[in-house]
Amino acid sequence: MNPRREPRGGRSSLFDGIEEGGIRAASSYSHEINEHENERALEGLQDRVILLKRLSGDINEEVDTHNRMLDRMGNDMDSSRGILSGTMDRFKTVFETKSSRRMLTLVASFVGLFLVIYYLTR
C-alpha cells in the first residue's frame, strides 16, 4: 500500500463529514428561510383579506343606504304624482264648467298656495 494515500483517505473522510454537515445545514437554513417567507406572505395575504372584507362590508352598507334613499324618493314621487293628478283633475273640472268665477278662484288659490309653500321652504 502507498503510505501517501492513507493520509489523503483520512483527510477526505474528515472533509466529507464536514461538507455533508454543511450541506445539510444550508438545506435546513434554506428551508427555514422559505418557511419564514411563507409565513410573512401568509400574514400579508390575511391582512389583504381582512381589508377586502371590511371594504366589501362598507360597500354593502353604502348600497343599503342608497337603496333606502331611492325607495323614499320613489314613495315621494308617487305621492307627488297623486297630488299633481288631483290638481290636474280639478283644473279639468274648472275648464269643463267654463265658470270664470270658479276658475279665477281656483287659480288664485293655487297661486297663493304655491307662494306660501315657496316662502316656507325658503
From TrEMBL:
Any one GO BP annotation for this protein: vesicle-mediated transport
Keyword Transport attributed: yes
Domain of life: Eukaryota
Localization (cell): Endoplasmic reticulum membrane; Golgi apparatus membrane
Membrane spanning stretches: 103-121
Residues in coiled coil: none
Keywords, ordered alphabetically: Coiled coil, Endoplasmic reticulum, ER-Golgi transport, Golgi apparatus, Membrane, Protein transport, Transmembrane, Transmembrane helix, Transport
Residue ranges occupied by any T-SNARE coiled-coil homology domain in the UniProt entry: 32-94
Entry keyword Translocase: no
Topological type in the membrane: Single-pass type IV membrane protein
Cited Gene3D superfamilies: 1.20.5.110
GO cellular component, one term: Golgi membrane
Alphabetical list of CDD domains matching this protein: SNARE_Bet1 (cd15853)
Cited function: Required for vesicular transport from the ER to the Golgi complex. Functions as a SNARE associated with ER-derived vesicles.
Family: Belongs to the BET1 family.
Protein name: Bet1-like SNARE 1-1
Organism: Cardamine amara subsp. amara
Organism lineage string: Eukaryota, Viridiplantae, Streptophyta, Embryophyta, Tracheophyta
